[in-house]
Design brief:
Elements: H1 2-32, E1 48-56, H2 62-73, H3 78-81, E2 82-89, H4 95-106, E3 112-118, H5 129-146, E4 156-164, E5 167-168, H6 173-183, H7 186-189, E6 192-195, E7 198-199, H8 209-226, E8 237-240, H9 241-246, H10 257-269, E9 274-277, E10 282-284, H11 292-320, H12 326-359
Parallel strand pairs: 1-2, 1-4, 2-3, 6-9, 7-10
Antiparallel strand pairs: 4-8, 5-10, 6-8
């Protein structure tokens, strides 16, 4: 019983640390509302930051995509510095009609708006978001590089931002990203990934209780552990084009590249990659269905996907660990196993069962 009490006390300390981290990040989010950004006063070394944002979609309603793109087009100076590619699959229904509609709506709202169509059956790929995103980002970067007037690699510092088709970017996301980019040392920029805290609260008031609970916990764990412990990125994040290209864009053979990406980037720079939080909230659509039964099915499918994804990450780490600096490999492995294995999978079950087992 003494051992159980000690372990439970340790777990409560960890939960308390997560609560403190959440309050810390929420304070930064609130404070940023009144924060004034003056990019002209920052030392930019004569370069201009521009952005390439990628959104991949398949059979999702185009209205979801429009909400996401509207949140991007409403960003300050979107017409001057934000380019977007919308990555469709070759099997997307009515893709010609959707392509035309998207071009009609957004060609005039971004510096460049690109629609790509990802063909099926490319070598080394599995169906999913990240094989689509890998294809779309390569096509978009190639197009920007081929445009001599764009100034890529000369006067333009390009930042890549990943997104989902059910994402609403917070106000001034890209201004906050630029400010932190220029305030970060030049040595550190090349190994930094900027992560926006995600809140799974689009129509969450209409969702079943288990969807609401999962959504709130995902936000809690992201701000409590994933970002401050430097474990992994999630869904919406930004990085330099150089790090993105050196890391070979996106791995098309994994279904959750956002989680394995930090390992790949660490292999590239041969030192610790840093996750920095952007003080702007991003809204993300929770798991959803048309009725209660479909909500339960989607929720169960997502749990299965997360479980497989966590196993994928450990498998990827086991393969790449010899290419990582030993210190980074050991620290990251301990954090990953402790977070995903102990905190998420074991701690709650242990807290409930252990006292009863020992008392018997």
């Amino acid at each position: 019983m003494e051992i159980v009490v000690i372990i439970l006390a340790f777990l409560h300390i960890l939960w308390f640390i997560a609560v403190i981290n959440n309050f810390r990040y929420l304070y930064k989010l609130r404070k940023f509302k009144s924060h004034q950004i003056n990019l002209s006063k920052l030392n930019t070394s004569g370069k201009t930051v521009k952005h390439l944002v990628g959104i991949a979609f398949y059979k999702e309603p185009i209205e979801l995509m429009i909400d996401t793109l509207d949140s991007l087009s409403s960003q300050p100076d979107a017409r001057k510095k934000i380019s977007v590619f919308a990555g469709m699959e070759s099997g997307t229904p009515d893709k010609e009609e959707k392509t035309k509609k998207l071009h009609d709506l957004y060609d005039s709202k971004f510096e460049k708006f690109i629609v790509t169509v990802h063909p099926r059956g490319l070598p080394g790929e599995i169906p999913g978001k990240y094989s689509n995103f890998n294809f779309g980002s390569r096509m978009a970067v190639s197009q920007l590089r081929g445009d001599k007037s764009y100034g890529l690699d000369k006067t333009v510092e390009l930042l890549i931002t990943t997104g989902d088709c059910d994402t609403v970017f917070g106000d001034r996301y890209f201004d906050a990203l630029e400010e932190d980019f220029w305030m970060t040392s030049s040595e550190q920029r090349g190994r930094t990934v900027w992560q926006s805290p995600l809140f799974y609260c689009i129509n969450i008031d209409k969702s079943p209780f288990f969807v609401r609970v999962t959504g709130l916990l995902r936000s809690f764990f992201m701000m409590g552990y994933l970002i401050p412990w430097n474990i992994n990125t999630m869904s919406v994040f930004s990085l330099t084009l150089k790090l993105f290209e050196d890391g070979e864009y996106v791995h098309p053979g994994y279904q959750m590249d956002d989680i394995i990406a930090l390992i790949r980037w660490t292999c590239v720079v041969r030192q610790k990659c840093i996750i920095r939080a952007i003080p702007v909230a991003t809204l993300s659509g929770p798991t959803s269905g048309k009725n209660y039964f479909e909500e339960l099915y989607e929720w169960a499918r997502q749990i299965r996907r997360w479980t497989i994804g966590a196993a994928e990450v450990f498998h990827y780490f086991a393969i790449k660990s010899t290419r990582l600096p030993m210190g980074c490999a050991i620290v990251w492995a301990l954090r990953f196993i402790f977070y995903y294995g102990f905190l998420l999978c074991i701690s709650s079950v242990y807290s409930i069962i252990a006292p009863f087992v020992v008392s018997v």
